[in-house]
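Obj: model holo form, ligand = heme C.
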Amino acid sequence: MKKLLVSYVALLTLGVAEVKTYTQADRILDMQKMAQAMQDIQSGFFYNNLDIVKAGAEDLKKTIVKIRPIDSELHNKDVYERWMNNNTAMTKRIQRNIASRTEVIIKRFENGDPRQALQEYSKITEQCMKCHISLRKW
Ligand code: HEC
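Output (holo structure tokens):
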């Protein structure tokens, strides 16, 4: 029981420490990286360059998993609760969705099917906007 409690506290501390390190500046930077990655993918399409498509898709896949609530959201009780209740599941779903679509983009483009790759790309854009609209009311 004691052991369980200790590991629970350790987990909690770790969790809080990890969340604390994610600032608004970090998230803005991640967003800008993703916007750049999306542009890279699009350039890869236009220049018919698999390496550029791949690099963009991989950047995007690496970055999307980092998105989470920032410090001030976690410390504002109401916002936190709202986030926990409504948005954590949505965020995870969107992250999984985008990550798997980046893989499909690479595969489709590699296999000479740029139309399908573009379709996946549009669906990623929809996912980005889904969060912006529902979370940010943009
Ligand atoms: C889970 C929610 C979520 C997802 C998914 C998401 N965003 Fe964002 N995005 C935000 C939030 C929140 C902000 C506002 C950041 C801030 O100012 O604190 C933002 C801001 C931005 C900005 C503006 C950054 C700046 O310089 O002010 C860009 C660009 C952006 N997102 C691009 C993207 C792209 C591209 C995707 C998809 C690949 C995406 N976002 C997916 C939540 C999300």
